[in-house]
Amino acid sequence: MHYRHLYYFVRIVEAGSFSQAARTIHVAQPALSQQIGELEASLGVSLLQRSARGVRPTAAGQKLYDEASSILRKYENLPGLVRSSSGTVEGQVSLGMPASLSTTLVGPFIEACRADHPKVTLKFIDGDSEFLREEVEKSRLDLALAYEDEFFPVVLRQPLFRQNHYLISSRRSAHAVAKSISLKEVAKIPLVLPAGLNARRVVIDRTFAEAGLSLNLAAEAVTVASELSAVRSGAGSTILNLGDMSGFSLGEFADPVLIEPTFYLTCCLIWSNEVPLTLAAGHVKTLLVDFMKVQIHTTQRPGASWLD
User: Smallest Cα–Cα separation from 53: which of 93, 19, 103?
Assistant: First the structure.
């Protein structure tokens, strides 16, 4: 087994097909197939399930992918680790953010990081909080911002701020004139909410269940963008923290209505409890905490309260 075997395998899994991986890493597709064949032969197991729609890892392949991607990231960090020993902070730091935060924060944070640590390269990944936590768990991300309801022990964290939830409706909504609304009134309104085990959906379901109320569910959405698109069209309202607008402007909707009694998610900075942060990641972590504190205080984000 060689480095190139692991590198090609990880890139194929991430691309979802041999052809896409070949285009991404500029290696001929037959050569990739040969390398994976050698890897499977050396391990004695099948690693990829091939179909007309692409490839996906087998159970053994998924295990290899989890370990190999972590190994490759450590390998890529070695030059920065060695150079940082001379006193200069250097290297690549992978940072995850929910899309709702990345749309407004990535650019300013890159500028802040370049000013303080010009030899640090940031690699951004966005996704929902559950996905980002899993990437940190598997050591594929150094740091991530994530909205959490429960604090899972599989990662280390620093809670940053709490974000209350609001009713978001279309501009022509009749109940949009109020400044606050009760849970009981919200329960009467058709809602478009996230599906599955989304952290926001979990805290919404629990809050209404504890109040003895049932939700009037009009539809479920996989992404915040599709959720807000449905709300903007008048298909229903949603329950959202105002850090989660996913590229939409609040001006496209009626004024947010605070739901009372209030309930919240906590935005945390998380990192692995198994793999120590590199020197560069440690400096980015400190900078990001200070950056987020300034953002919360200066932008006066509705419903957000910094946790000291």
Answer: 19
CA–chain centroid gap for 153, Å, is 18
Task: From residue 149, give the alpha-carbon distance in Å to each of 62, 152, 238, 239.
Answer: 28, 9, 18, 15
Please name the helix (run of DSSP H) or strand (run of DSSP E) that holds residue 305, with its range, or none.
Answer: strand 304-306
Nearest to 272 by CA among 116, 169, 139, 77: 139
pLDDT tens for 20-40 read 888 888 888 888 888 888 888
Q: 76 CB contacts (<8 Å, ≥6 apart)?
A: 92
Residue 190 phi, psi (nearest 5): -60, 130
State the pTM of this model.
0.69
**Residue span of the structural domain in which 49 resides:** 3-65
Q: How many domains does the chain have?
A: 3
Residue 37 lies in a domain: yes
Query: Both 260 and 271 in a single domain?
Result: no
Beta strands in 79-216 (DSSP E): 91-97, 120-126, 143-148, 155-168, 180-182, 191-194
Say if residue 271 is in the same domain as residue 154.
Answer: yes
